[in-house]
Amino acid sequence: MNRSVRVLNATYEYLGEVSADRAVVLIATGSAQSTEDVIPIFPVRSKHVEIPLPRTILLAEYVYVAHRVTVTDSSRATFTGIFDRDGRQCAYCAARATTIDHVQPRSRNGPNTWGNLVACCSSCNQRKADRTPAEAGMRLLWEPKAPRRIEKVQQKIWRELSRT
Ligand SMILES: [Zn+2]
């Protein structure tokens, strides 16, 4: 069974995901509880118990997260991360992107950051060359920013919790 379960800190802060097996252990040992006890979604049968597998579990005790990584627009980004964020679409023409463009060119100290890298098709990349979008007469279809996935998941959790 490879469903994943969201884990919330005791403060309802989103921490990440664990495997269903791990979630079952956390619930069985009393380390966590389902946030949706009333909606059994997916029954889990082990040798001894049968419990509904929730989508979200809440830790019984607060876990101090010492090194929460804050990703900002000026954080360093990987090329893979940029392709993921941009869905492999060229930021200038929406064609399939195969390259990465430095919005502020590398030759002018444009950094490898979320705010300065975009996925780019090879023809746009060649056309833009060592120029800024303005100099090349090209327009970005979107503003490159640090990915907001974690924040989005957290917002969704707050929304779901406010409904119950
Ligand atoms: Zn393009």
TrEMBL record:
SMART domains given in the database record = HNHc (SM00507)
Q: Which domain of life is it from?
A: Bacteria
Q: What is this protein called?
A: HNH nuclease domain-containing protein
Q: Which Gene3D superfamilies match?
A: 1.10.30.50
Transmembrane region(s): none
Q: Which residues form the HNH nuclease domain?
A: 77-126
The family database entries (CDD domains) matched by this protein are listed as: HNHc
Give one GO term, molecular function aspect: endonuclease activity
Q: Which InterPro entries match?
A: HNH (IPR002711), HNH_nuc (IPR003615), NA-targeting_endonuclease (IPR052892)
Question: Which Pfam families does this chain map to?
Answer: HNH
